[in-house]
Amino acid sequence: MANPLRGEVVKLYKNLLYLGREYPKGVNYFRDRLKTAFMKHRDETDPEKIKKLIARGEFVMKELEALYYLRKYRALKKRYYEGEE
C-alpha cells in the first residue's frame, strides 16, 4: 500500500493494539482478531474504501474506550455503593 493513507492505517493499527491490552478475552485473542481484520483488507487500493475502513476502525476504538470506561465505572460503583442497595 504505497499511498498517503498508509500512515493513518499504521497509526490506527498501533492504537487498536494498545487498546487491546485490557480486552476482556485477553490480549492474544484481540491481537489475532485485529491482525486478521487488517490482513483481510491489505490489498485494498481504492482511497475512498480505505477511508471508510479507517473510519470503521476509529469507531471500534471509541467502542473499546467506552467498554473500558464502563468497566471502571462498574468496579468503582461496586466498591463504594455495595451495601446501599
TrEMBL record:
The record's Gene Ontology cellular component field reads: mitochondrion
Name the InterPro entries for this protein: Complex1_LYR_dom, Complex1_LYR_ETFRF1_LYRM5, ETFRF1
> Pfam families, from UniProt?
Complex1_LYR (PF05347)
Q: Where is the Complex 1 LYR protein domain?
A: 8-61
Q: Name one GO biological process term.
A: negative regulation of oxidative phosphorylation
The record's CDD domains line, in alphabetical order, gives: Complex1_LYR_ETFRF1_LYRM5
Q: Which domain of life is it from?
A: Eukaryota
Q: Per the similarity annotation, which family is this?
A: Belongs to the complex I LYR family.
This one is known as: Complex 1 LYR protein domain-containing protein
